Amino acid sequence: MRFLRLLFGRRARRRWIHLILGGALAMPYVLVGETIIGPATDSRYAFNDFPLQLLSFGVGLPLAALTSLFPLTRPLESGAVRWLCGVDPDRLAYGPARTRAAKGRTAAWFTLHLGFGGIIAGMSLAVPPFAGFLVALPVIAVLNRGWLELPAALDHTWVFALAPVAGVAILAALAACAAVSGALLARWAPALLGPTPEDRLAAAEARAADLAVRNRLARELHDSVGHALSAVTLQASAARRVLDSDPEFVREALAAIEDTTRRTVGELDAVLGVLRDGDAPGTAPAPTLAADLDGLLRRTRACGLRVTATVAADPEALPPVLSREAYRIVQEGLSNVLKHAGGKVTVTLRIEIADSRLEITVENPLGPSPVCRPGGGHGLRGIADRTRLLGGTTEAGPADGIWRLHVRLPMRGPV
Fold it and tell me: Any coiled-coil ranges, and where (predicted)?
């Protein structure tokens, strides 16, 4: 049963189809070979001469190897191998062959495909009719009334008895040849159509670039939306507690919530616009220290957090990229205070320039327990990523009863 499945199973049939496609692709090259062999051998009918057909086939295969240098050959052959030969898609290359080695392997594969395919396709055309004749020979002999003159060699009883067996054996041999040829091509395909080191490097670079974009978008979403949600949560909580006793504070909290959500929706639209295929990115500008540091401090103080800020650097003089990333770092530092220390603590923020570096320091007393999300999030990791991309350093941790975040960013660095 297993033997029959190997010869006639679904995979064997699909590989047989792949070989027949190779034979069909070989036909134009064989016809070109006949136009060369015919005049060279003074034969007017090379198509009717089997040895000349084989010679024409041999002449056509080098021509096939030359035409395999077209860019679409490897993608098309890889797709056919994937669907018909059952080869793992990850072991095949689907782009055009760029290097000399890749082109040589593609030419070798195309020649093998057309060579094996031409032979198996020719056998598939010639063998079944002959095998069918042998299987039906005893019936033909019995029904023959002189209408068909059989060769004298067939005028033996044992010949008629063995003819059906020989016919079935020939069909089985054809199936075995097709199965073996298909298995060999499937085995050789990864080596000849697989990705080269250059292809793997290009794919790795593309994945790294895509991952970098995804990580950047994730940081932007985390810093903007995470800070906004933390601030809005504390503002709403503080307003609810003093709803009856301090209407003025409630109005300020609601105004801060409105301002925070409006700005965050604009930033969210700008980030999500990059993710929408065919859509232009959002037009909301990325916040910077020069543009929104005062607003960030105002919205944070509206949460009840007491912020003492010392800005010894001119935000307008900072490079745009540095100002943007520094804003996100300050925003995330304040957001961490809101989430983990609560809204009734005093936080100290210092922004200064020392030794050609922008230094950002955020300090606050350690809270008894996290306020918003036990276990924390990815804020410190995002700060470290931003700092590393700018060529700076990050220090964060508890010391002497306070939590201290200290970031140093070069004024000019790898951005």
Answer: none
